[in-house]
Design a protein that fits this description.
2 domains; single chain; 223 residues; OB fold (Dihydrolipoamide Acetyltransferase, E2P); two-stranded antiparallel sheet; alpha+beta; 6 helices
């Protein structure tokens, strides 16, 4: 099976999008180029060409949470600021997925109602952006008077439990869970199974938030 990047290039060669010179692979155009950059941030297999990495996983490795990450966590932070821009990017990505379907190329989003799920994810976007903002403020507060840190943990964490002013997290690349205290006005924005791109610090007594990035919800299947 062809790799995702090769299929994106093949599709782009057919539809001739305007080159996106600011992205690593301009020939993909802005929409697919952004989608490709987002996928590079996931655990999908990739070719590490210096300055020009590419996703070399097959399209059947696409997961529903990749769509959640792209719509909610990635696009608002990557020069896509208006509803019109967002709609155009998502339409272009949908067109690529539809092209895969027409060519009978198996992919991981085959059972996904794209339009419905995009609407649901856009509704969740405001909450996740608010949460990301408050987490960023909290990390700034911690760093104003930083405690002694024994070691740090950077990962995309998933929320496994919410207990008043404490949130228990499980890192994608770490086996043990982490329990971190957060102000109540932040915890109220958190939902079970949310994904958060964080850097945490261990003071030996507690975990503290050092840096916060993307936040996106768990993709809820209709099945």
């Amino acid at each position: 099976m062809k790799e995702l990047f090769d299929l994106m290039r093949e599709y782009a060669a057919e539809v001739h999008p305007a080159p996106a010179e600011e992205l690593p692979h301009p020939e993909l155009g802005k929409s697919l180029g952004l989608f490709h950059v987002c996928l590079l941030e996931t655990d999908l297999a990739r070719d590490e060409i210096p300055g020009m990495p590419s996703v070399n996983a097959s399209p059947d490795k696409l997961e529903p949470n990749h769509l959640s990450r792209f719509v909610v966590g990635f696009l608002p932070f990557n020069s896509v600021s208006t509803p019109e821009e967002t709609n155009q990017v998502l339409f272009d990505v949908y067109s690529f997925i539809n092209w895969l379907d027409k060519k009978n190329i198996p992919h991981g989003w085959a059972e996904l109602d794209f339009s419905l799920k995009v609407r649901e994810l856009l509704e969740a976007q405001k909450r996740c952006l608010e949460l990301s903002h408050y987490l960023d403020e909290e990390s700034g507060r911690i760093l104003e008077d930083p405690p002694a840190i024994t070691h740090t943990m950077a990962d995309v964490f998933q929320v496994v439990n919410i207990d008043e002013k404490f949130v228990t997290l499980k890192g994608l690349h770490h086996e043990d869970t982490v329990r971190i205290g957060l102000p109540g006005e932040i915890v109220k924005w958190v939902r079970p199974h949310d994904h958060m791109d964080l850097v945490l610090g261990d003071t030996s007594e507690r975990w503290v938030l050092l840096e916060a990035g993307q936040v996106f919800p768990e993709f809820e299947s209709d099945k």
